[in-house]
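Lab meeting tomorrow. Look over both lines:
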Amino acid sequence: SVGTDVILDPGDLEGSFASGRNFANKLWNAGRFILSNLDGPPRPLAGGPSAVRRDELTQGWIAYARPDYPAALRHFDRAVRRDPRRYVWLRALRAQVFVAQRQYDSAQAEMSTLRSELARRDAQRTTVAYESKELLDYAIGLLYAIQGQPERAREALQSALVENLAFYPAQLTLGDMALNSGDAVAAAEQYEDGLMAGSQDA
């Protein structure tokens, strides 16, 4: 259920790690989503290996892979500060690093800052194009839930549905939360809505 640790059963590693595997897949998809939303194409580095050593984004990824999470956070933070418009989505990656360290409050703060910054940009745009932010609201909701703040989690998940009513992961998570709180009727309604939305998305 939402907000609980993954307990591994040595006799059934495949089954007991299913939720952990699913969460890791969500983080992987979030990382790909971040990279796809960086403003502009990747910029080639002039200067060879010495330039790579000075590139905060590259060094951040290297540190993250080691894993050296404190160094990764420092490099990603420098990249954001150096070019906040281009690298604003790195805040989601910083949130992912905080999650890896179980610093959920810091992760939630990064995601909320990112959400606010993107909303500010939307308000400044003169075009009619709008980028839905249901994935951000969903991630913020999960982070509130894992910190034991169900009301804020529900608010964020409901915001995800305001952004996109067909975003069934938020509906299913709201169903889980309702079931955990003992409201089987509300849980059934959320599950039904989520399954209907999911079948239409398939």
User: Anything to note?
Assistant: Residues 49-53 have pLDDT under 50 and may be disordered.
